[in-house]
Write a structure and sequence with these properties.
- The protein is an alpha+beta fold.
- It folds into two domains: about 170 residues, no CATH class; about 140 residues, no CATH class.
- Helix content is about 45%, strand content about 15%.
- It contains ten helices and seven strands.
- The strands form two sheets. Strands 1-2-3-4 form a four-stranded antiparallel beta sheet, with helices on one face. It has a three-stranded antiparallel beta sheet with strand order 5-6-7.
- A hairpin with a 2-residue loop joins strand 5 and strand 6.
- Helix 2 packs across helix 5.
- The radius of gyration is 22 Å and the shape is globular.
- The relative contact order is 0.10.
């Protein structure tokens, strides 16, 4: 999830678990503890863009990282004079909970989270929430704000923190219900349209859990479509994209290509834009693909001009958006 959501969630958990012992300091400490796994951003200062993709949500988002960091950090916190006294045991459980919630929540996005590093490079991705979903985050943000404003002895503090987390949890459950509905519809369509597929995934489009992006892998490429939970027509139109693996022949031995293939987990197509060889990761969707089935992809990496690959995912996430596209997006969500 986005950093602000982690900060707000960490503050709410801090109030529930340590508010009695730490007072309002529990909000700040909780927000900081919840954000610890994201120290992997430091790797971007010396890694290449392709290597940085694997470093992000890599080892610092693993169970092993939690196991080797929670207790040492608890020892430091228990001896820090600025903090009210809390036992090492309580600090350890507090930190374990914050770190675990962070890596657990991140796994609901498309990026993937390396829970099992360094023993396995497999990345867990449930594809149930967009990385920034206002409806998931708003209750947490309001809850954290109220906790900042309310005085420490206020009797409603825990109630607000608990309700903020509960509302977001219910929304996550609702997202999973929608995903199950979409899954059944996708499988029916692939079978009825006689599309032979090896595997597929569904993932929400930006900021909502109603309009879903579908990617199915065939023998020579991928079938991509969109489905809203409000669609009245059961038919899902699919656009085929050839994988074009042969275009990689000239760069197959490059380390960055291997990093990209591992990161994309096989969900990629290769194309050329303006005489530039481009690697597209399909998991992050298309630029307004619900409007234009042949639209370019959000994640694209220039293989023969690697210096142009800063801000890889972010640069295409909201490209081509304007007022008209936002209105058409809302209409498409509504089933139009």
């Amino acid at each position: 999830m986005d950093s602000l959501t982690h900060l707000a969630l960490g503050a709410c958990i801090g109030e529930l678990c340590a508010g009695k012992s730490l007072g309002k300091k529990a909000l700040l400490i909780g927000a900081v503890a919840q954000s610890i796994p994201d120290i992997d951003f430091l790797a971007s200062f010396w890694n290449s863009p392709a290597s940085d993709l694997l470093a992000h949500r890599g080892f610092t988002h693993s169970f092993l990282f939690i196991a080797i960091t929670a207790y040492p950090l608890a020892l430091i916190a228990a001896r820090w004079q600025w903090l009210p006294r809390m036992s090492v045991r309580n600090w350890t459980w507090f930190l374990v909970l914050q770190l675990f919630v962070h890596i657990f929540l991140d796994a609901f996005n498309a990026y993937g989270t390396a829970w099992f590093e360094p023993f396995s490079h497999y990345r867990v991705a449930f594809h149930a929430l967009f990385v920034a979903d206002p409806l998931f985050s708003i209750s947490l943000g309001l809850g954290a704000l109220l906790l900042i404003l309310l005085p420490s002895p206020h009797s409603s503090r825990k109630k607000w923190a608990r309700n903020a987390i509960l509302i977001s949890t219910i929304y996550l459950g609702y997202a999973l219900v929608n995903k199950h509905f979409i899954k059944n519809s996708v499988e029916d369509n692939l079978i009825h349209q006689q599309i032979t597929f090896k595997r597929y995934f569904t993932t929400p489009t930006p900021g909502n859990v109603w309009l879903w992006n579908i990617v199915g892998e065939g023998d020579q490429g991928f079938y991509i479509g969109y489905r809203s939970v409000f669609d009245t027509n059961d038919f899902i139109p699919f656009q085929f994209f050839s994988k074009n693996d042969s275009l990689l022949d000239s760069v197959e031995g490059h380390e960055e290509v291997q990093h990209l293939k591992r990161f994309a987990e096989g969900y990629y197509v290769v194309s050329t834009y303006d005489d530039r060889l481009v690697f597209n990761d399909l998991r992050f969707g298309q630029m307004l693909g619900w409007e234009n089935p042949t639209a370019p992809f959000v994640f694209y990496y220039y293989l023969n001009q690697p210096d142009d690959n800063e801000l890889l995912i972010q640069r295409g996430r909201f490209a081509r958006w304007n007022y008209e596209s936002a209105i058409s997006f809302l209409k498409r969500i509504g089933g139009q």
